[in-house]
Amino acid sequence: MLVALALVSAGPRVAQAADYSARYAPGVVAPVAVGQTFTVPVRVTNTGALTWSHSGRCAAVLGYHWYQDTTRVAFDAQGTPLPRSVAPGQSVDLSVTVVAPDAPGSYILAWDMRAQCEWFTKMGAAPGNQNVQVLPAR
Fold first, then answer.
1. 3-state secondary structure 93-129
2. Is the pLDDT of residue 119 over 90?
3. 22-135 has which CATH code?
4. In this predicted model, what pLDDT tens digit does every residue of 74-100 receive, in sequence order?
5. What residue spans define the domains of the chain?
6. How do residues 52-73 score in pLDDT, each as one tens digit?
7. 22 near 42, Cβ under 8 Å?
8. For the chain, percent helix, then strand, then coil, each to nearest 5?
9. Residue (of 60, 127, 69) closest to 101 by Cα position
10. Residues 6+ apart with CB under 8 A from 116
């Protein structure tokens, strides 16, 4: 009896939310003035299946998006780099420099990791949301 086996390649594997997900534990943010630069301590835990690399092309970084209701009004294009790679189940403490939006109001500061040149939220993971009040300039 002769049996033939064929291997079929499905092409490159596409990352999914289960691969890249995180739990965010940011410090409390008091009301801030429009355009103010401030620092937030954030503990990020890798709840996904893959290690976040801190080096190389498209290294993992912690970024943020500002939302007013469901509209994104600003985001952190650079991100805060990780001091080391973070394996599944591990956490890292970061100090993130944030710039407040240019208009007063109630906002959501959405924490979002980025790896492999893509935001985790774009891959289906949940952000770490916190409400922030932005006040008029003094």
1. EEEEEEECCCCCEEEEEEEEEEECCEEHHHHCCCCEE
2. yes
3. 2.60.40.10
4. 999 899 999 999 999 999 999 999 999
5. 22-135
6. 999 999 999 999 999 999 999 9
7. no
8. 5, 45, 50
9. 69
10. 15, 20, 58
21 token code pair = 């997900």
- Token pair listed for 97: 């420099």
CB contact at 8 A, 133 and 106: yes
Kindly state the helix (H) or strand (E) to which residue 72 belongs, with its residue range: strand 71-75
Which of 31, 42, 36, 10 minimizes the C-alpha distance to 111?
Answer: 42
- Its pTM stands at 0.86
- Residue whose structure tokens are 């943010």: 29
